[in-house]
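#struct-help
A.M.: can someone run this one for me? Single chain, 419 residues.
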Amino acid sequence: MSHSTKMVNTTTSSCLQTTFLQARLRLVTAVALACAFFFLSGCTSSGSGADSKEGRAHAASSHAASVAVAKVEKQDVPVYMVGLGSVTAFYTANIKSRVDGQIMRVNFQEGQIVKEGDLLILIDPRPYQVQLEQMQAQLFKDQASLRDARLNLDRYTTLIPSGSIAQQQVDTQKSTVDQLDGQVRTDQAQIDNAKLQLVYCNITAPFTGRVGLRQVDPGNIVHAADTNPMLILTQLQPIAVIFTLPEDELPTVAQHMKNSTLAVEAYSRDNQTKLATGKLMTIDNQIDQTTGTAKLKAVFDNKDNQLWPNQFVNANLLLETRKNSTVVPTAAIQRGPQGAFVYVVKPDSTVEARTVAISLTQGTATVIASGVVPGDTVVTDGQDKLQTGSKVEPRTANPADTRNGINGSGAPASGTPAS
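D.P.: on it. Structure tokens below:
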């Protein structure tokens, strides 16, 4: 019995072990199948994502980019040099009195345009008229004494041969005549001075100009030693503008001055309004070492009085006009490793990057030496989305911004030759 019981126990234990191993094997198999399923699912998802990205990229590449375009034009381009300037009156006079006296009449109104020689202020002339009459009376007296001395000299001279008079007396009489003659000349000089003082009582305009604010009124006493002027007279027609340019540009300006008279345009401080057109007169004879600039002087007719002394303006010096230049908007120029280039729109609405050679940059316009021809269409905005072959949907740029090298404000900008 014991032997049979042992065999039964052994058989039961073996069955349990076999069952445990089978269960464990099924568990491992299930885990392995699950891992394989998830792995395959991940690969499928990744492949689908890649296909989706490629699809989106293809869709994007087929979508036309909206860009601003402009035509390449052939036109005349003015070349300017721009400097900050100040308006200066061609003539300025601080009118002061040259005599002492009371102001009798002020013969002008503030802001009036007066002509050369017009009476401005009358100073009481009566004291100087009295002095003149006194000098004239003194002259009359001394002339009478001189005539009497000359008659005596003639009498003494006729008595010399007879020995009736000493030679010394004759010489003394001659000296008296000379002294009286000198006195008469002094009197005449004093009379001329008194007449000049009378002239100074009438203060007249030394040139045609505009009267400023009056500093004195009738009844006031003025003196020749006064430091403050009675009025300031400025000539406004013509008028001058003094502006500065860098010293490196002076040789170019001087060279162009030899060939012709250079035009200068004056614009308002905000560079929005053209005030007047004049001509360059001269270049200063020295350079300011503290700023590295030189002064230039331009003259304007100023018929409409748009310029006023001490007014700040932007002076635009026209050096030359380049005829029949190939011009593109400056906004179309791009920079890359190979240099400057533009995107040219082809007839099939795709773009091509084309290298260009820049001759001159003038404000919002750039003169091209080679690379594009008049009639080509270039992209002026939206270039960051493009590459060669990209499809575009053009929209026309504002032509006012790309005309004749004129910037958006309407004033010419300084030309910058390409390096």
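A.M.: thanks! The chain has a mean pLDDT of 82.
D.P.: also worth noting: Residues 92 and 234 are 5 Å apart (CA to CA).
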